[in-house]
């Protein structure tokens, strides 16, 4: 995700009774994003089982990881595979590289593993302004080479190309959807991409984040971020009661103005985070996602384009190794926590249970936590460097103002940091040896909304530092070395 425009922040607030939607059978199905930037990812087979148990018909990946794809084989789930931005330059400069990519990452899985790949996403939000134009020159040529490779592989009728773009590739000059057009600095490039997609039957994929509107603008009318319709704007007779519809139709106006008003649109990412910011909480996430799912279930489109939306929720599971450059909320977009437990009641309309179904057979480490010892003093000069060391590896994004652990006292804060570091290191004894400060306990320190987690078991491969868990493995010697260094520096 990235930034979403906030041009609709000045809507008139009117009281409307709007949402009288009856749940009906899903028309177009619902998809979900499956990201794997976690220190302890659930096994791929467990995740695929979750997808099926929850009735997701489609999944979007950010790469073409072969274990994820193998697990999706013969699952009946449609797949969008992804090409990370850092591969675009190579794929742009060589048709051969693109052919190899398609052969290894698409053809093999389709023909030998029974994976129902429908889309290849070329890049991920490559034109985000925060990326400084790094991928402006390579995205279209990579898209063209991948398309040629798909044709050469004989897959062009079933596999389509697309580019997931952030909603900042367009904006409105009037703050109304009808003022929509592509961003001036990339206007021509966008038209070339749109033409290429249109010529090849590829959809326009856009990520839309009402949460960001609220995050970046404190005056944004909160009701307009949700689907409950207590706030609206009138755009030449079209009534917009939520920023999602307005944003979607700004894109549609941009497409229409440039002659591509019929291009199909996929909402590549949509969702709401649950922690790491005052507006990121369980209630808001539940309200937003349920509102969106009611809209999907009703087969409702937007004022400018009626009919069912094609969308992928963001996201399935929290990812504790994601960069927090966009904000502390970035690790908390999941419908499920890191261990596959549902966060809140959500009726996706896809199963008889009417609620989210947890991951099965998840194995946890022992019921023990690393906390600040009662004999340690808050004045100990080792406290500050120990906490900052722990938090540089562990996930301390729940500690900030308005977050789930934002109300802890100083000792609780320190314990939280120690414990998360300890859990990320698979409860390694040496990861709870903050000098004279820490102790292992069997008493759960969790209070209220603040959960001190117990890590899940991953396979031995990662525990030994060879797999995905490798990032979290820090031998004691290095810990001690850094403490000594910090102690000297202080
Ligand atoms: C296939 O995809 C994986 C994961 O994205 C990547 O590491 C690998 O380099 C790709 N294969 C080729 C031939 O590019
Ligand atoms: C973009 O530029 C800014 C300022 O020059 C820099 O801090 C940032 O790291 C750059 N980002 C990327 C992705 O190159
Ligand atoms: C509209 O809804 C938001 C979010 O549910 C709420 O915070 C706000 O007070 C409501 N505004 C009005 C005018 O009812
Ligand atoms: C868009 O689709 C509609 C209905 O299929 C068709 O009547 C119309 O001509 C199309 N417009 C363009 C610009 O292709
Ligand atoms: C707890 O830690 C967070 C994040 O480091 C900090 O913002 C907060 O002020 C701390 N609270 C206390 C009571 O120390
Ligand atoms: C821990 O405390 C003991 C006794 O108070 C002290 O001798 C020792 O130097 C301390 N160790 C560290 C690493 O601070």
Automatic annotation (TrEMBL):
Its EC number is 3.2.1.39. InterPro entries: GH (IPR017853), Glyco_hydro_17 (IPR000490), Glyco_hydro_17_plant (IPR044965), POMP_repeat (IPR003368), X8 (IPR012946). It catalyses: Hydrolysis of (1->3)-beta-D-glucosidic linkages in (1->3)-beta-D-glucans. PROSITE patterns: GLYCOSYL_HYDROL_F17 (PS00587). GO terms for cellular component: extracellular region; plasma membrane; side of membrane. Transmembrane segments: none annotated. It is a lipid-anchor; GPI-anchor. The keyword Secreted applies. It is found in: Cell membrane; Cell outer membrane; Secreted. GO terms for biological process: carbohydrate metabolic process; defense response. This is glucan endo-1,3-beta-D-glucosidase. Keywords: Cell membrane, Cell outer membrane, Disulfide bond, Glycoprotein, Glycosidase, GPI-anchor, Hydrolase, Lipoprotein, Membrane, Plant defense, Secreted, Signal. It comes from Erythroxylum novogranatense. GO terms for molecular function: glucan endo-1,3-beta-D-glucosidase activity. Signal peptide: none annotated.
